Amino acid sequence: MPNTMALSDLIDGLQALGLCHGDTVMVHSAYTALGISDPELIIQALCQVLGDTGTLLMPGLSYAQQPPTVHDTRTTPTCVGFLSEYMRTRPGTQRSLHPTHSVCGIGARIPELLDSHLADRTPRGPHSPFNKLFHMDGGKILMLGCTLGPNTSMHAVEEYVVPPYLFGQPVTYHITDANGQIYAAIYTAHDFAGVEQRYNRVGLILSEPALRDGMVGKAHSYLIDAPTLLKEALVHLRHDPYFFVDRIDVDG
User: Fold this and answer.
1) Which of 59, 95, 163, 245 has the maximal Cβ count within 10 Å?
2) E-strand stretches of 81-155
3) Rounded Cα distance, 175 and 37, in Å
4) Cβ-proximal residues to 211 (8 Å cutoff; 6+ apart), any chain
5) 242: Cβ–Cβ under 8 A, 6 or more apart, which residues?
6) What are the two backbone dihedrals, phi and then psi, of residue 202, each rounded to the nearest 5 degrees?
7) Is the model's pLDDT at 87 over the cut of 50?
């Protein structure tokens, strides 16, 4: 797959979408849709738009790895796509300490976003970078080349309300940190038994400027204002805990 655009084209697309210097952005991505062969090109474009005061985050999720396997923050791969795994292994990237829902990132606000994640005992608790993003000026979520559906940042919103489908059983995980120290802790994982996620419904509750869409590379993409998403999504979840899911008819 050849590169069919310059770095400047990607930068123009991101800026037209509304990404700005100094923003903190969580990127959920479908890399192959972008039409480039070098993942470094999109990382460089994101970093140039964010500048030296901005911060780039990507999910480092590893929920596919189950206990009693030891999660090693240095080597355990992500299970959420090529670009996230590239980011994890890229020199200079840091990773938060969590067995299933870690976050990888670079930039100015990494210490405050990542350093306390070990204190959480759920996937998206108060110390999670996913949650902290909701309380930051310039906090944004970029759906890069994908629809609004795979916006796993929504799980952090759900933890505020705890709808009936959210949590499963507590499980003990062992985690190895960047210095080789091993921790053991009990975590309550997400479950989603009996439901199908429908986070594309964010498009029903947000409009510009909180939700913008446009082309980045060859891919249709969306940029979401994270604090506004939290505010509006909580209104709907508190009214209907099943607003962002469909219940599965197990008898039908």
Assistant:
1) 59
2) 94-95, 103-107, 139-144
3) 34
4) 202, 203, 222, 223, 224, 225
5) 163, 165, 195
6) -55, -35
7) yes
